[in-house]
Fold this sequence. Notes:
Blueprint: H1 2-8, H2 32-40, H3 46-54, H4 60-67, H5 75-83, H6 99-105, H7 109-117, H8 132-139, H9 142-150, H10 165-170, H11 187-193, H12 208-214, H13 218-226, H14 245-252, H15 255-263, H16 278-285, H17 288-296, H18 311-317, H19 321-329, H20 344-350, H21 354-362, E1 367-368, E2 371-372, H22 377-408, H23 410-420, H24 441-445, H25 450-460, E3 476-480, E4 489-491, H26 492-502, E5 516-519, H27 521-540, E6 555-560, H28 561-572, H29 578-586, E7 591-598, H30 600-611, E8 615-618, H31 625-640, E9 649-653, H32 666-675, E10 679-684, H33 691-699, E11 704-708, H34 709-712
Parallel strand pairs: 6-7, 6-9, 7-8, 9-10, 10-11
Antiparallel strand pairs: 1-2, 3-4, 3-5
Helix pairs in contact: 1-3, 6-7, 6-8, 7-9, 8-9, 9-11, 12-13, 12-14, 13-15, 14-15, 14-16, 15-17, 16-17, 16-18, 18-19, 18-20, 20-21, 22-23, 31-32
Amino acid sequence: MWLCVAQYAGTELRWPGAKLKMIRPEGSILSTSCLSDLRAEGMLPERCLVAAVKSQWMPWEIVDAAMGKRGLVDEDVLAKWREYGGDVDAPVYGYNMTMLSIAVSNVKYQVTRALLEHGANPNHRGKHGMTSLGAACQMGNLRLVKLLLLWQGDPNQRDDEGFTILHNEVGQVNDDGVHEPDRPVSAWLRTFLTVAKLDEIAPDGDTALFKAIATGRRNYVRALLDNGARVDLVAGLNTDGSKTALLVAAQKGDDIVTSQLIEHGANVDYRNEGGRAALHLAAQMGHAKVLDVLISSGATVDLQCDRGMTALSSAASFGQIDAARLLISKGANVSHRDPRNMTLVDYAQHNGHHRMMRLLSEMGANRVDGDWTPMTRQGMLLIAFLMSFWVELLVIITSCMAVAWCRRSGAARRSLERATQPKKAKPRRRKAAGAPTDEPEWWLELSPLHDALDDAAKVERPDFICSISQELMRNPALLSDGRAQGEHVYEHDHVKKWVDTHGTEPTTRARLRNARITVNGPLQRAIRSWCEEKADLLRQGAATLRPAPVVRSGIHVFVDHSNVSVGATRATGKPLDIRRLVHGLERRRDARERVVVGSAELKRTGSEWKKLGYTILTEKGHGPEQLVDEALHAHAMRAAGKSFEPGRVMVLVTGDGNNNQGSTTFPECVSQALRNDWHVELYSWRQALSQVYLDLATQHASHVSIHYLDDVFA
């Protein structure tokens, strides 16, 4: 056996009766019984111990012999090892672990105590920077935790990544990377909380209290608060901005934790670097219960952020109906205007939340200081009906008078007929060659307002714009191949010319066997109604077009498949409906680039993406998700680095805003696109959206818009 020890130190020794027949061929580890037999025969070769000490490695034979049988320690072996200068904290041969770490990992209480009495360091850092105390906490052994704390184990020591034992316990995830559900606080953790520093800030900017709130562990939150964790500690990274525990709970939507924090003295009106309080974040995410708790605890309902927005402004901007109803019932000011003179209706209209516009209008948000903001749809329809009624009545009266006068004078009748003979109006637009349709009469009557209506539709109703001509449709038509109903709508004349020339579907470029063009009557009536209402407002001067100096000529779609498919399963309980997603993203617009990136799940649905014209990128094998994200970053960065005239739209489908360990991130792609005058549309599930994108949408309201997939699949 000792020949094996000598081999560790690179020394050849020959000992009579050393039982060489028991040495294994590789010369590695012998049984404890062999060592016991040698020691019983008085064969303790000191030179071998000296050689092992010089090698600065502790042989496994020493570990086996020291631990002994039945979990008891062999004091003689430890004493002999130290007598010859051996370090109790020397790493065991072949492992980056000390004998103390091995004893703790194997729950050897007596051995652990004996090693500590012989000078073992409880704070020695092993693999990944974990100490023996960290290993005991990870196993949840109360006796070992108390023993190591008694021997000066440091409860606040950080691992190689900078996290403490408490950070790792509170933010623990399972093998699938998902945070574990709430569970009772174990006995060892209750003891640990009495000696650990509870307000240490982790490298990601969170404290243990922040992590417990974010992962939904209410029992841990209660234990931390009872042991003195600070509720008003300000922390957070630059990407997230400063935050307190109450801001985290409000954004998470946990009304019970919010109540606990307020009971422990949290400031309900604390504002972060952007001036936003817990009330703003809860309203933005639509957490009505949290809003009720905050207002009942004394939060200022109309508290404004640095940009002059109240909580009701945030709810209106993000279309949170339930949050808006509660705020209004609690006395929120529906007539509020920010420093840019934008009303609540303006915020809702800018982001396309029509239900929110109706709610605010019903609550009197249209009237501000005696002035009227743009009317609701119902009001405009009523005015249009009354005007058409009086015009028709006037026409009838005039016709009756003309007939009576013409009967008295034939010459006057013929003159009147020539004067009142309607002249054929010339259409403003040229028809495609061989087109079978004419411009409708209602469109010819609006000829002075054609340009204004085109510009308004591109801003307010892009679904009314033909992706071929980039003009407002008058005769919208569905294109099919005779086998299934078409999904895209185009102007009749232009799509007929396209099919005659190319023989393909304009959006998907699929070859058409039996092209069939059918006018979409309901959509045509909707376009006519919208044009007539907008024309009435333009004539009265009541409508002001939103500034749109740049007409976006095309879209570039980038889809993080892993993020959106996992979110679909959690939000709807069903697999991702790819066709419905693509229809909601593109909305019959001209897609210049389509890229979808993912891992294993994408390989099963790749054929359906290809049919819709998407380029598919997947990671071979089972590589890390980071590599998959970087592939999508590269495509998005390449597009964002270009500048187009007219400008284009980047459609980014992800909620991931995390730091990518030094590589590019999705927020950096958005920032690059904004520098080149792109408009960015971000699509994400509500619960998966990172705060980084909400901040970007607030800072660049005219160029960044957020759309929730929960509404697309509602």
